[in-house]
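Hey L., structure's done. Input below.
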Amino acid sequence: MPAKKVKSKKSEVRSKVSKTTAATVKKPAKAKKADKKSKVVEKRISSKNNFKKILGPIAQYEKQIVLLFVLLGLAGLLYLFSKWFIVALVDKVPVTRAQFYQELDKRYGKQIKEQLVVQQLVLNEAKKRGVTISQQEIEAEYKKVQDQVGADMLGNLLAQQNITDKDFRNQLKLQLLVRKMFGQGINITDADIDKYLKDNQATQSAQTIDDKQKQQIRDQLTNQKVSQNFQSWLQQAQSSSRVIKF
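Output:
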């Protein structure tokens, strides 16, 4: 065989080999994307497997944990039920809160409803008229009551009636609002004090009693007139369309 033909065949073989190698080295773009996706999937699978290995001991008790949470939820519901719907158990028989409120309503319902209506009317009227009471005024009135009856006696009286200091101060605020709104223009004269003393069969007069006694009588007469003005206004307010009772 001539040398030229052998060389040409060798060159053809080399070119085929180089093309085959190039084809294997240079992958298409689609093949590269597929390889990336497969690697991502493999990573996710391995991470899940690792996560399962870590949570292996916990996963064994998964049902027990769920059951525990369910039982805790039921226990919480039972506690709320007993707290809000049952006031006592007598020989394992429940006394319901509905029974409790029905009995309260029978005995004191009318009185309590009336107090709440009057309280709201006073607050609304004060807001309408722009009348306010400061905390300093409330504390001054509180101290005044303490000085009159004594701090210990006041504490005992409030405790006997289950009235807290906060509730008592709220009552004082309502009284001060009433006094401000319905005590305007009231002027107690010595003649009024003399009439009071005469009606109470006292031998003294406004000129003979001391200033402290005179002030006490003046305050008492002022409160009486404030109460009269307030009661007159209250009757009109309660009989008007401002109050709708059910």
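The chain is about 80% helix and 5% strand. The beta strands are 86-90, 93-96.

-- N.
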